[in-house]
Design brief:
This protein has 184 residues and is mostly helical. Helix content is 71%, strand content 0%. It has 2 domains: 51 residues, Arc Repressor Mutant, subunit A (Orthogonal Bundle), CATH 1.10.10.60; 130 residues. α4 runs parallel beside α7 and α7 packs across α8. The longest helix has 30 residues. It is elongated. The mean pLDDT is 83.
Length: 184
């Protein structure tokens, strides 16, 4: 068997096709075979060489989408013209108005039927986003007096769990207006 000299290109191709299909058909209605059929000759083995399951493909697609989100968080975290509280407010305002937000909601599965994936995504949020983006903002807010807490790590986790569970229309069937009210 010939070795693929550009495995990263194959992965990007698989993810691009999967993302498009998830957007068109939804995650639950897209099968591995649907993805294979759009890969122009790549085999099922090529997919399974890079991904263990459709769920793994979804996680990789979501990671690509959330990389943009993390970049936005980093830009706000690093701003010098806002205090800590203003940075948290800015994150919420920017988050609700991001076009990619609709993409995330479209490709995401029904979490009622996929608690394992929900747990995985929430765990990553707590392990990565809380300490790298939200916690530094809270500590700045504590230093500048705009945020009062004795438990900055726990507050960072609470903010993210609230944002990713209670505010998440994929978990609670909230209308656009209800979601907006929760953000406000």
């Amino acid at each position: 068997m010939a070795r693929n000299k550009h495995p990263e290109e194959t992965v990007h191709f698989i993810l691009d096709v999967a993302f498009r299909l998830f957007m068109e058909k939804g995650y639950e209605h897209t099968s591995i075979q649907d993805i294979i059929d759009q890969l122009g000759g790549l085999s099922k083995g090529a997919i399974y060489h890079h991904f263990k399951s459709k769920e793994d493909i979804l996680v990789a697609v979501t990671d690509k989408i959330t990389a943009e989100s993390n970049q936005m968080l980093a830009v706000i975290r690093d701003r010098s013209d806002l205090n800590g509280k203003e940075k948290l407010q800015t994150i919420f305002k920017v988050s609700i108005n991001r076009p990619v937000q609709n993409d995330i909601f479209t490709v995401a599965p029904d979490f009622h039927n996929n608690p394992k994936l929900l747990f995985s995504l929430l765990h990553d949020t707590i392990d990565n986003v809380a300490p790298n983006y939200i916690l530094p903002i809270i500590k700045q807010g504590m230093a500048d007096g705009s945020i009062q807490t004795d438990y900055p790590e726990q507050l960072a986790e609470l903010i993210l769990l609230t944002a990713n569970v209670w505010l998440n229309p994929m978990i609670f069937d909230s209308s656009e207006e209800e979601s907006y009210r929760k953000f406000m």
